[in-house]
Design goal:
mainly beta, Porin, 18-stranded antiparallel barrel, 4 helices, 18 strands
Length: 423
């Protein structure tokens, strides 16, 4: 006969208490980080952008740099009201020259009278889009660096109102967002025509476990755009995402066949399709394919590089800087941005704590220009040896022929070490 006895120990009754201040939201909060980044560049001597940047100095095969940054985050909350501030202090040195800067990345105030509505005004990042490396629907945000997309960036000044509603059924959540986007000589000067007030909006749906956004930007002072994005977990460790934007006329400054600047309007589609997969080995893979109708064609970038070579020859013969200064200024802006061409492939793999080394995350990233065959590859080692301290080492390799995007850059290797301390 099987019997089961349950023994319940008797203990004296105890009084339990806790401090409400430990769980209450603080009225003020402050944080941020300080970092130092020494770097060494193996210069690609003779490449077009090397000639453009160093035409009057020619430093040789190597150049060292040292960057200091301090990012401050501060916040205040009082009932339905709150305020946030984010500022960046920087000091950059190279070849004995130092530059200091101060940028207000974000500064906003908000009123949230209920869980369903809030009103916000000030400078902020909106972070529209589901892409990791690119965000064609980020109509009111700075362009990310695809090789370091998690860097803090400066926002734009807007007035934003948002309403949230929850439901039962396939449609679980509906969020309506409206924005006023001013543009003047003192605010948002690079987002549109001066002295205009523009309108943007976003509709968010959580429908059948799929995140979906529809967004637009319109007004007399901006290039009008509309777009959508989505993301969905097909299974717990496999996510797909995508976004697409239609641009109805963006202004670009380009060079004609004689090297003379002219302004043109481009219209078309830009979008990406991507996935994120967490393997059983605790390796996370990212894959994105990006297309941009408004990007440069292969022959357009090659033409720009040809003008640089001609201007460099002219400078060597006459010491006349005018052509080189023009090509490095406004005339060159459309040719020198992050991934300025039309078709790219992005791959990234991050391994969590290999060989049981706690808080160690090595990663590899590749960005491939599908138009000219050039590429950029990065090996990264991230380590958090103690709380609030982060070490990151990176080696970046750029390859391609001399008139390709990455082959024409001023350096062919870059090594950097970042020490970041959070406070």
């Amino acid at each position: 006969m099987l019997s089961l006895t349950i023994v319940i120990p008797l203990v004296p009754q105890q009084d339990y208490s806790f401090d409400l201040s430990e769980i209450e939201k603080k009225k003020f909060n402050f944080g941020g980080y300080a970092e130092v980044i020494p770097s060494v560049f193996n210069l690609n001597t003779g490449s077009p952008l090397y000639l453009l940047r160093y035409y009057d100095s020619r430093p040789g095969d190597y150049e060292a740099g040292l960057d200091f940054r301090v990012l401050f985050d501060a916040g205040w909350t009082e009932g339905p009201f709150s305020a946030d501030l984010r500022a960046n202090l920087s000091l950059n040195g190279s070849e004995g020259q130092w530059n200091a800067g101060f940028d207000l990345y974000e500064g906003k105030i908000a009123w949230k009278p209920s869980l369903n509505f809030f009103l916000e005004a000030g400078k902020q990042r909106l972070k529209w889009g589901k892409g990791y490396a690119w965000n064609p629907v980020a109509f009111i945000d700075r362009v990310k660096n695809p090789n370091d997309p998690e860097l803090a960036l400066e926002g734009y000044t807007v007035i934003r109102a948002e309403y949230v509603k929850s439901f039962r059924g396939h449609l679980r959540t509906l969020t309506l967002t409206g924005l006023l986007v001013p543009s003047a000589s003192w605010v948002n000067e690079d987002i549109g025509e001066k002295d205009t007030l523009n309108l943007a909006g976003k509709v968010y749906l959580l429908y059948a476990d799929t995140d979906i956004n529809f967004m637009f930007l319109a007004g007399s002072g901006v290039a009008e755009k509309c777009g959508l994005d989505f993301s969905r977990n097909l299974v717990s460790n496999f996510e797909v995402h995508g976004e697409g934007a239609w641009n109805f006329g963006e202004k670009f400054s380009l060079l004609d066949n004689e090297g003379k600047p002219f302004e043109t309007k481009k219209r078309g589609f830009s979008g990406l399709l991507g996935l994120r997969y967490l393997a059983p080995t605790n390796t996370t893979f990212f894959l994105e394919i990006y297309h941009n109708d408004l990007g440069l064609k292969k022959n357009e970038l090659q033409k720009y590089y040809s003008f640089i070579n001609e201007a460099a020859d002219h400078f060597n013969l006459s010491s006349d800087r005018a052509l080189m200064e023009n090509l490095s200024g406004k005339q060159g802006a459309s040719y020198q941005g992050f991934t300025p061409m039309q078709n790219y492939l992005f791959l990234r793999a991050v391994q969590k704590e290999p060989f049981n080394i706690l808080y160690f995350y090595p990663a590899m990233t590749g960005i491939f220009n599908l138009d000219d065959g050039s590429f950029l590859a990065t090996v990264e080692l991230l380590y958090n040896p103690i709380t609030n301290v982060e070490l990151r080492a990176r080696a970046v390799i750029l390859r391609g022929d001399g008139f390709s995007e990455f082959g024409g850059k001023p350096n062919k290797h870059r090594w950097e070490l970042r020490l970041r301390v959070y406070f």
